[in-house]
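Re-run with default settings, no changes from the original entry. Doing this only to confirm the output is reproducible before filing.
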Amino acid sequence: MRRKLPGLFALLLLGSGTARAGDDPVPALFGILRGGALAPGWSLAGKLEAFRGEGIYDYMDGAGEIPRACGFVALAAAPFRHQGGLEVTAEVLRMSSDADAFGISSLWRDPAARKVALTHRACLRGGELFSWRGAYAIAIREPRTGRLTADPAIALARALERRIAAAGALPSLLRCLPRRGCVEGSARYFHGKYALDTLWFRSDNVLRLGADTSVALADYSRPKGRAGVVSYPTKRRADEALEGWRRALGAARGANGAWLVDTREQHLGAFAAGSRIGIIFSAPDRASRQSLLDAVRAGVASPGPAWSDG
């Protein structure tokens, strides 16, 4: 059942609560996959496999860094068969928290893909369906043809989600992002550099990301661009990261303590506020960058209401 993934991205879904050191998450994962009645027409079609911690690299050849950058704890996978002939692999990932379950699923979502109303907004694209509930993320994949029949797959995902007690909440850091102009389904959340590389690549870890940092970002249509907030354990860490970003990109000082980068194609900006950095990863012009900087600065200073979806 081990698979080689087509690119950097790969993973998802399911859970409730926050993982505690010493807990073995595998029995709960197996219970989700094989416990109780499934959706009509579905049956378990083979053995279950489980992978903990760095064991993810044994299952996801070339893509384990992404879940590891998002608070991955363990994964269980199993084959399922529908009476109509559809065969899929269902994967359930236990993440460190509800926020991290949203995070790994957010990296798989495509704003242009079909949206599915499950516990939270799910994404159906090609041969894959991604969702999350509680501290768990779920992926249902059709590995042979890359074509997934929507209705049976959605019914299976809904049946698996019913086995997870708590719905879970989105990351509180999203509250720092402006909602106005946000592209629906574009919000992402993660911790480490490998996840950021899928959205904004640099060979160096210029923002000094790691397991104790958190990143929330989203795409915007008006003004156009990609904006985010990075949270660090201390103000000193945030200041050091901003200084490293400034030096690496050759940023020039702007107004209100911001640092600005201008190229022929993109306009970037960043500022520090306590233990957080607001950052514009891309904008097509200076005016858009400034509007996004102002909106992010306002959100960091006074976070908005909790997001109901990303």
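The mean pLDDT is 90. DSSP finds eight helices and 17 strands in the chain.
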